[in-house]
Amino acid sequence: MLGSCTRGVASGRIYLGGLRPANSTLATRVPGVSKRPARTVLLFFLAEHMCLELLSSRGFIKLLSTGECQSGARTVLQLLAFTMPPPPLLPCLKFVVLGGTALNEDTMKDCAVLFSNHYGIWGDEASVPLTAGSRIKMSVRKLRAEVLPDPTNGFVSLCYADNTLVGQAFATRWAFDGASTVPPWILCTVLYYNDDTGGRVCWVTQLVVSSEHRQKNIATMLLLQLAAAQPNCTAMGLASTHPASCLALTKAAHVSMLHLDLSFIQQHAKSILATSPVCYIRTARLRGSLFEKDGDPAVVSLANTEYFVDHAEPRAALEKWESRSSSEWPLGKLLSGHEFFVVVPLNPPR
Ligand SMILES: CC(C)(COP(=O)(O)OP(=O)(O)OC[C@H]1O[C@@H](n2cnc3c(N)ncnc32)[C@H](O)[C@@H]1OP(=O)(O)O)[C@@H](O)C(=O)NCCC(=O)NCCS
Fold first, then answer.
1. Residues 106-160: pLDDT tens digits?
2. How many CA atoms lie within 13 A of 307 on its CB side?
3. Are residues 43 and 162 in the same domain?
4. pLDDT tens digit sequence for 65-98
5. Which end of the chain is more exposed for a tag (fewer CB within 10 A), N or C?
6. What is the CATH number of the domain that holds 193?
7. What residue stretches are annotated with the N-acetyltransferase domain (predicted)?
């Protein structure tokens, strides 16, 4: 059938018979395209022109509408399918999870480049030597120190599109204090320490997806991979200015943002922070109605990390989510220098 023929369209132009420049991705992806005989190419060319002629003829449209030209209609539909642009080519995505100690220098360099080119820009309140409007950058050394401080308990989920790194999610896991769930008589036992009664959190220390590949569920997939690689973790969390990263987290943990368990965040946030090996999390100050009695009631769950990134993109994403879901963002208002603070339960170990 003509409609199933391989077609090439660039800038609205049809490449005859599906032929494209020799070095194009499609030409290399579809074996046999370039072997199409010249006669067939000529046939497609004529067919395309005939199709346009037929469509512009009022007589033909009349015939089509009265059903008197069934075979002609079929031919035209086939030709129309042939001239319609093909679905966009999807890159071949590959996901990999690596332990922190298995990360070599080359991969770290790729991660630093992806972050520096795609993470975001500094906001107006960023202080000297940072410049408002300039890209937020990170060297390999800073990356290791900030997002992988404990390599033996650190890991990364990477996404490659046609062998180019397009997404990364760094995480560190640690046991957080389960004291609030342990009865006081157990606490009296001075030597008591049992890792299994407390929680274990998988904390996402950095999440970034290349701007060309966003809104294709890559962040969600990266976090799903992380969660799957940590079956013993009871919670997963992150601090981010971007609602999309919070949404990716809830999706990866199979919970709905509309039914986010705020009491879970309230219950565990302080102990997660206090026990964190990740410096910017350990020193962050919790803000919002979940943690403070006084204060702006519109602020629900934030961490003050003094990270003055530009909020234009997160704000637009938030407005989009609120209008799409006809709901208020459960984590409340975002303040300058703050990030949304979200923790969700993961399936406890059986
Ligand atoms: C945040 C970020 C990682 C999201 O990556 P992504 O691959 O586009 O995310 P996903 O496609 O998995 O989308 C997850 C959810 O967010 C939504 N979303 C993603 N980008 C959005 C946007 N710009 N506006 C509105 N919603 C958006 C998606 O629709 C999806 O929700 P849904 O399943 O309810 O439809 C990416 O935008 C990014 O790298 N931003 C810059 C860096 C940053 O802010 N990182 C977070 C700091 S930890």
1. 999 999 999 999 999 999 888 888 889 999 999 999 999 999 999 999 999 999 9
2. 24
3. no
4. 444 445 666 666 566 666 667 666 678 999 999 9
5. C
6. 3.40.630.30
7. 151-238
Asked if residue 12 and residue 130 are part of one domain, the reply reads no
With a CB cutoff of 8 Å and minimum separation 6, the contacts of 310 are: 120, 121, 122, 123, 124, 132, 133
The count of structural domains within the chain is 2
Question: Would the CB of 138 count as within 6 Å of ligand 1?
Answer: no
User: Whole-model pTM?
Assistant: 0.75
Residue 223 shares a structural domain with residue 77 = no
Any bridge partners for residue 302, and if so which?
287, 340
Q: How far is the CA of 214 from the centre of ligand 1 (A)?
A: 7
Q: Which candidate, 20, 140, 13, places its Cα nearest to that of 85?
A: 13
Specify whether 168 is located in the same domain as 257. Answer: yes
User: What number does the ligand 1 atom closest to the CA of 214 have?
Assistant: 8
Six-digit token string for 301 = 């769950």
Residue nearest atom 28 of ligand 1, based on CA coordinates: 215
Last residue of one domain, picked from the residues 49, 83, 117: 83
Give residue 331's domain range: 103-345
